[in-house]
Amino acid sequence: MSFDSLQEFLAMGGHGLYVWLSYGAAAIIVAYNVVSVRVAERRFFENARARERRQTRGSDGPVASSGGSRSGDGSRDAIGESTRS
User: Fold this and answer.
1) What is the enclosing helix (H) or strand (E) of 45?
2) Which residues contact 2 (CB under 8 A, 6 or more apart)?
3) Residue 58's pLDDT band (boundaries 50, 70, 90)?
4) Sequence-ordered list of residues with C-beta below 8 angstroms from that of 9, at least 6 positions apart, any chain
5) Which of 1, 30, 29 is closest to 16 using CA atoms?
6) What are the φ/ψ torsions at residue 76 (nearest 5 degrees)?
7) Has residue 73 got a pLDDT over 90?
8) Helix (H) or strand (E) holding 49
9) Bridge partners of residue 82, in order along the sequence
10) Which of 2, 17, 45, 46 has the smallest count of CB within 10 Å of its CB?
11) Cβ neighbour number for residue 9 with a 10 Å cutoff
């Protein structure tokens, strides 16, 4: 198909709206896929580095506690359960 002007090209023989909306939707989907993969990759590597730091720190010995919970003071442990007996 040959077009004599830019107007005819954009009109696409009366199907321009469908054609250009399709191209736009495809471009948005491709852009979303690229961005979401990059965000997921960044999160994955941040989590891997954090896990590595925790494992490295844990192998050096016990980590000093900053007060911790004392028995009977109504504190909660790591999963939120009461430490009272």
Assistant:
1) helix 16-59
2) none
3) confident
4) 3
5) 1
6) -115, 150
7) no
8) helix 16-59
9) 76
10) 2
11) 13
Structure tokens at 25: 């939707």
- 35: its two tokens: 């961005």
Question: pTM above the 0.70 mark?
Answer: no
Residue 1 in contact with residue 12, Cβ under 8 Å? no
> Measured between alpha carbons, how far is 37 from 43 in angstroms, rounded to an integer?
10
DSSP, collapsed to helix, strand or coil, labels residue 29 as helix
Q: What is the rounded CA–CA span in Å between residue 36 and residue 28?
A: 12
Q: Tokens 């494992």, residue? A: 55
Residue type, 29: I
pLDDT digits (tens, 9 = 90+) for 7-28: 999 898 889 999 999 999 999 9
Distance of CA 72 to the CA centre of its chain: 41
15, 3 in Cβ contact below 8 A?
no
